[in-house]
Amino acid sequence: MMTAVRERAAYANLLLPSELRKARLDTRDAALATELTYGTLRTQGLLDRIIAEAAGRPVEEIDPPVLDLVRLGAYQLLFTRIGAHAAVDTSVEAARTQGLGRAGAFVNAVLRKVSAQDLDGWVAVLRKDVTDPVARLAVGTAHPEWIARAFAESLGADAAELPELLAADDARPKVHLAALPGAISAEELALVTGGTEGVVSPYAVHLDSGDPGTLEAVRDRLATVQDEGSQVVAIAASRAPLVGEDGGRWLDLCAGPGGKAVMLGALAEIEGATVTGVEVSEHRADLVREATRDLPVTVLTADGRDPGLEPGFDRVLLDAPCSGLGALRRRPEARWRKTAADIPGLVVLQRELLESALRLVRPGGVVLYATCSPHLSETVSMIREANRRDDVELLDVREILEGIDGAATEGLGDGPWVQLWPHRHGTDAMFMAGLRRVASDPTPPTRED
Ligand SMILES: C[S@@+](CC[C@H](N)C(=O)[O-])C[C@H]1O[C@@H](n2cnc3c(N)ncnc32)[C@H](O)[C@@H]1O
């Protein structure tokens, strides 16, 4: 499993359920396998630094399949109550059964060194010469330093919340369901699933555990699995105030795999509107088609920067491709795969998509820009830059949420944009901003020759 995630750059949350089914583990063993896999991937960067100290060499010099075993063993030693003997012995045995027998002695020696101290002891070793408070927190919570720093910058005046935020990132998230508007209410969905109603979206229900795919309400397409923050983004896009009548032409410019398109489609159906979904990847466009097949949604496979659509949309949701730093708790391996160097390229794409969204929306219509990242370059800076245009006015997203019965109104910051946070709202760290297009001055500037 770890090897598959490493070699195929697969996502653990997509791969693990089928691997567990194949292995036919009972519920307890499956829960343990899940905890060990996710935990080892989530803490990998920290484990690697500890392993490097214990092995006396950089982890890049360790054979990758052997390193996978050492990481798994080190995770058990430092993060679980599994006894040291059991953790070391099963790791050595795994080396033998995987045909890495000659590495058994190495695995044994490194893990014995790792087991000589507990987690706090190792964190103290790694922090020995580190004085910067954010860097110290990053080590202690197994976050890359650049990510902890980006979070601190985004929290700004609330940077004292950083320890809570990083801890929330490390906790296993609840399953969030969305009751589809017009199909079932959150109250009914909570009753039939045994869940509890959410607090950020009026359609949300939380489940503590379980496989949501097996729920009747999900199979019958009355509900979907969707983070509460994402639900609010789609609702806000449908409710932002326009100038003039809503003509019912809505656009979802980056629609794949279709979570928000489903919510937007269900809301559009109630309002008598239709949604055009645009997605550049053929495969993801197909996923949107399948997810929205009963809803008034038409899907186009195209580049959102120039999709060839007639302008004049009343509402445009731009859920931009982003670093995903706001959803690290749902993707255990993600924090170690991303780098600060990924951000500038994403920002260019986001800017071009936002320009396209503003070309496609009619004067008086609204673009709801969203990212599942709190990185300031992808969020506030992007919106400040767009706001320099004279045909854009910013809407206060807090007011939009206040107008939605049952939506969150607490901890939304100073506006006009809203940043949701896992530690405050229990959601992914979704950012949203509302940009309304105003008719730009039709008179061309006079030139004095
Ligand atoms: C953040 S995801 C959107 C998630 C989606 N709104 C949902 O709720 O399921 C961004 C999507 O944008 C797509 N994308 C990337 N570049 C694009 C482009 N130039 N035009 C349209 N879609 C693009 C990606 O393939 C990805 O599916």
Give the overall silhouette: globular
Number of domains: 4
CATH class of the largest domain: Alpha Beta
The overall strand count is 12
CATH 4th-level superfamily of the largest domain: Vaccinia Virus protein VP39
Strand portion: 5-15%
- How helical, in percent, are the residues? 40-55%
| Number of helical elements | 21
The mean pLDDT is: 94
What small molecules does this complex bind? S-adenosylmethionine
For the report, how would you describe the main beta sheet?
8 strands, mixed
Specify Rg, calculated over alpha carbons.
24 Å
- Indicate the CATH architecture of the largest domain: 3-Layer(aba) Sandwich
**CATH structural fold name of the largest domain:** Rossmann fold
InterPro entries: MeTrfase_RsmB-F_NOP2_cat, MeTrfase_RsmB-F_NOP2_dom, NusB-like_sf, NusB_RsmB_TIM44, RCMT, RsmB/NOL1/NOP2-like_CS, SAM-dependent_MTases_sf
GO biological process, one term: methylation
Protein name: 16S rRNA m5C967 methyltransferase
Binding site for S-adenosyl-L-methionine: 254-260, 279, 303, 319
